[in-house]
Amino acid sequence: xxxxxxxxxxxxxxxxxxxxxxxxxxxxxxxxxxxxxxxxxxxxxxxxxxxxxxxxxxxxxxxxxxxxxxxxxxxxxxxxxxxxxxxxxxxxxxxxxxxxxxxxxxxxxxxxxxxxxxxxxx
Length: 122
Description:
Blueprint: E1 4-10, E2 14-20, E3 26-33, H1 40-58, E4 65-72, E5 76-77, E6 82-86, E7 91-95, H2 96-104, E8 108-112, H3 113-121
Parallel strand pairs: 1-4, 4-8
Antiparallel strand pairs: 1-2, 2-3, 5-6, 6-7
């Protein structure tokens, strides 16, 4: 069993991240500005950097991670990690999983932010 996962809340103003153990314990958390005006590639690099910082801060190894889960605004296809449209980011047809996975060095999962929030509450 993997010892942790990185959770990312992708917002129009901030990207919030947390490193979480399987029991729900938050090991590390941090928030950075989204800088959406820089475009999708810029924001995705910021997400990868945030994930790296969280892993380093917690003294973990990427190999011990189940992956990065990004809660993204807008309609999307979670099966392929494609965001159809995120108006607050100015994105259309962004393949978030394909773009983020090589930068993060971990598996990437993408889900609608409202669904992720509901799952977290449950």
